[in-house]
Amino acid sequence: MSASPKLDALRAELQAKGLRRAELHDDPFVQFDAWFQFASEADVHEPHAMVVSSVGADGMPSSRHVLLKGFDHGFVFFTNYTSQKGRELIDHPQASICFPWNILSRQVRVVGTVEKVTESESDEYFSTRPRGSQTGAWASHQSEVIADRSVLEGRWAEAEERFEGVDVPRPPHWGGFRVLPREIEFWQGKPSRLHDRFRYTVDASQPTGWRVERLSP
Ligand SMILES: Cc1cc2nc3c(=O)[nH]c(=O)nc-3n(C[C@H](O)[C@H](O)[C@H](O)COP(=O)(O)O)c2cc1C
User: A Gene Ontology MF term for this entry (predicted)?
Assistant: First the structure.
């Protein structure tokens, strides 16, 4: 049960309508853009929040939310390169993403390879962040064990002092990743668990570069 009657009605409408092959765009990024715009306009809370999973050296997967900051030929997010996810994605550059738009009875799943965005892309995005987030990026040694909150606050105060009166530069350990999809799946919930699923797979033999297949729910 959601707290929004408007979203409840919209979800019921989408479930009734379902998803048909003929409605899908040939380019999965255009299709993603349509669903992303829809979720944004429907007031889904943080539609750009996505779950990214990485894999450790021992094969253990690990998932967390990050915020999508752009998409072109890949899905871009920013983080600390020395964090758990940062190290895992550098050592093992493959990831999965899930957009959990369950309030709309929809999800989008992506699997693909991962690369760092260019330094200039990271610089450009870092420069748009609020100053407190910029100094916070210097203060947080993301994913490290710390004794208590005062350690973090102390490091933040140090960063504030260090960069007082000047623009905060991007820390060298902070930047973006781009997930380049090999597969993108669009899932639309339907009654009686007869959901609609379509998977786009990279396929050079197709005129569009993508093969589209319906999957059993
Ligand atoms: C909604 C939401 C959005 C988040 N966005 C980001 C993000 O864009 N980048 C980031 O590094 N962490 C983000 N976080 C925090 C991560 O989920 C995670 O706690 C942190 O990056 C450390 O992950 P790791 O130890 O697996 O590397 C977000 C958390 C939530 C709940």
Answer: pyridoxamine phosphate oxidase activity
Taking the C-alpha atoms of 212, 99, 65 and 102 in order, what is their torsion angle to the nearest 10 degrees?
Answer: -150
Diameter of the chain measured on Cα atoms: 61
Q: Which tokens sit at 87?
A: 């190290």
13-66 per-position pLDDT tens digit: 999 999 999 999 999 999 999 999 999 999 999 999 999 999 999 999 999 999
Average pLDDT over the chain reads 96
**Ligand 1 centroid to residue 153 C-alpha, Å:** 19
Ligand 1 pocket, residue 77 CB under 6 Å: yes
Q: Mean pLDDT throughout 120-134?
A: 98
Strands (E), the chain: 49-55, 61-67, 70-71, 75-80, 94-99, 106-116, 174-188, 196-202, 210-215
Mean pLDDT of 140-149: 94
pLDDT at 1: 54
> Which residue is closest in CA terms to ligand 1's atom 12?
66
Pocket of ligand 1 contains residue 7 by CB under 6 Å: no
Two tokens, residue 188: 């639309």
CATH class of 5-128+172-215: mainly beta
What residues does each domain of the chain span? 5-128+172-215
Residue 45, token pair as written in the block: 């809370």
